[in-house]
Amino acid sequence: MAADYRTQALQDPTTVLQELYRAHGNAENFPRFVAEHFSQLFETPGSYKRIPTLNVSSPPQSHQDRSLVRFRAMVQDTSLSTEMYLSKHNDGSCGGWGIYEAEAESSSSAREVDYTHLQECSVLWATSVPAESEWCAHELDQLEGGMCRIICAFVYDRNEVETFKSTDIVTFIGIISTEACVLDRTQEIAIEVPTLHVLFTKSHGPGLVPRVFPRLVRRTEENHQGVSIGESAKPIAQDNADTRRELIRWMAEEALGGDLRAAEWVLFSCIARVQSRHPPLLPPSLVVSRFPAPPPVPSTVGPSATPVPTLSAVLAALLPLTYPLNLSLESLNKTRYTPESKDEDLHAGVLQLPQGTVMLVSEGGVREGQLLEQGIMNVRALQEVMDAQTLAYVFPFSQFSFPTDISCIIVTEGRKSAFFRTDFNIPLCAPNDSAAVAALYKPADQIKMPSPEKLATFRDLVVGARCGKVQVPEATSEHIQAQFVLERQRDRNVTADDLIRWMTVSKLHALSLHEPTLSVETWQHAKALDDQRRALLS
Question: What pLDDT score was predicted for residue 105?
Answer without folding.
Answer: 47
